[in-house]
Amino acid sequence: MNTLHSRPEGASTLFLSNFAILPDLWCGGTVSKKKNGTWDQFLRIVQLVGVSMDNALRLLAVSLLLGSVAFCQTAQETTKLQHQRFETNLAGGTSLRLHLHEGDFRVVGSDAEKISIHVDGKNVEQAKKIKIQVTRSDGAVDLKLSHVPKNELQVTIEIPKSTNLYARMRGGDLSVEGVAGDKDLELTGGDLTIQVGSPEDYAHVDLSVRFGDVNGTQFGDPKGWLGNSVRKDGKGKYRLHAHVMAGDLVLKS
């Protein structure tokens, strides 16, 4: 068996202690997404401890297979949104799950591969109460915002345009614009506004309001006596599900 050089004492401990770099190599499920700097760091560790490359890669593969959930479920929290933006990386095409309590939220698609959150309004100083939690797991990111002031404050969440967006919100106003991926949106009470773009982009559309109205005829006239609903299948590639329990669902082109 070929080694790069003789193995120093404690090599196994040193090798394992550097497994903190593995989430950067594999989170998302494909080695092709690895960062070059992190991969180079991994190679330097292999050279330093003197294990063979074959054994190093075997250990890497087994560790990722058995511990992928533990490696990829990283979480971060932040506050102080009143003074600065919150930003974190998000690759285009990723599934993003938004968990929102109450407030006024705008979700806006952008060309940048990141999540960027900022606030506007008369009560900007109250944004210090906002809690932001990001949890990453295989193929998806969960973003939770809580303790958001209800009055005179709007939270804007910028995400990549091609994000597959899932959102659940308890109360308030939620608008989504410039997001071209799948959309699965539900609001308990308040108004939900969606920029849908071209109707031809969708394979399946399922829209409904329990107590309120669907405003917009891009997918046909809403039907129903108590509440409104629209369902349509097409030849596009995206899916759109939107439901409001009490309030209005507004569609914009």
Would you write up a description of this structure?
- The structure is a single chain.
- The chain is an alpha/beta fold and 253 residues long.
- The protein folds into 2 domains: 11-72; 75-252, no CATH class.
- Helices cover 18% and strands 44% of the residues.
- It is built from 4 helices and 14 strands.
- The protein has helices spanning 11-17, 22-26, 36-49, 53-72, and strands at residues 74-78, 86-89, 95-110, 114-120, 131-137, 140-146, 154-160, 164-177, 183-195, 202-211, 214-215, 228-233, 238-246, 249-252.
- Strands 1, 2, 3, 4, 5, 6, 7, 8, 9, 10, 11, 12, 13 and 14 form a 14-stranded mixed beta sheet that branches.
- A hairpin with a 2-residue loop joins β5 (131-137) and β6 (140-146).
- The longest helix has 20 residues, at 53-72.
- The relative contact order is 0.13.
Mean pLDDT: 80
- Strand count, sense and closure of the main sheet? 14 strands, mixed
Distance between the termini: 64 Å
Count the domains: 2
Number of helices: 4
Unreliably modeled segments: 1-36, 64-72
Strand-pairing-aware structural class: alpha/beta
Into which percentage range does the β-strand content fall?
A: 35-45%
Rg, Cα atoms, Å: 23 Å
Number of strands: 14
Shape verdict: globular
Q: What series of H and E elements makes up the topology?
A: HHHHEEEEEEEEEEEEEE
Q: Give the helix proportion (percent range).
A: 10-25%
How is this fold's topology laid out?
Layout: H1 11-17, H2 22-26, H3 36-49, H4 53-72, E1 74-78, E2 86-89, E3 95-110, E4 114-120, E5 131-137, E6 140-146, E7 154-160, E8 164-177, E9 183-195, E10 202-211, E11 214-215, E12 228-233, E13 238-246, E14 249-252
Parallel strand pairs: 3-6, 3-7, 3-8, 8-9, 9-13, 9-14, 10-13, 11-14
Antiparallel strand pairs: 1-5, 2-4, 4-7, 5-6, 10-12
